[in-house]
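Minutes, project check-in
Item: structure for the 187-residue chain
Input as provided by the requester:
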Amino acid sequence: MGKLVVALVFLQTMLLAIAPSSPAQAQVMINMSRVTCADYLAMNDEQSNVFGAWVGGYFNQRTGYTWIDLVAEQRNVANLKAWCATNRGEFVMTGLARAASSPGFHGDPNRAVVKVEMTQITCREFINYSFDKSEAIGAWMSGYWNAARNREILDLNRYKANAKRVSQYCKAHPKQTLMATIQRVAQ
């Protein structure tokens, strides 16, 4: 099983833990905008990292950024956890929407110590990343492309099917960028 597919199975497990679904429901759909601070704070580190990557991709797309300043991201996670600790009933994405409009949220591209340009990641690089890194990138990309389609709903069946297509395409086309691959094969 490809790393992206494994990452997606992990993401599905994490999201199922925070969003109940009926057994009769054939499709699992998670409304990411309904995750509260209490839900977020109850996640273990791995789960909150994946969730954070998804919303990070979502808000990067909304604000026109394709890069990540890892130092700013760490600061934002710490700020989000502190805000959530006193606002447990608030929705995480509501708080992030307010924060994303503030200066310094994304960091300064000219001062970024560790800057990752997501448009430059190749399929070969992605395939060779560690599980944790590929998991975070897969979640970030999902958030990014969901925002591009104005979707706050994560359809896990579609997500897994797209992950499989992307993984297969990447193996056959290692020089392609991951973003171009997702644009080409994801549905």
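Outcome recorded: The first strand starts at residue 29 and ends at 31.
No further action items on this chain.
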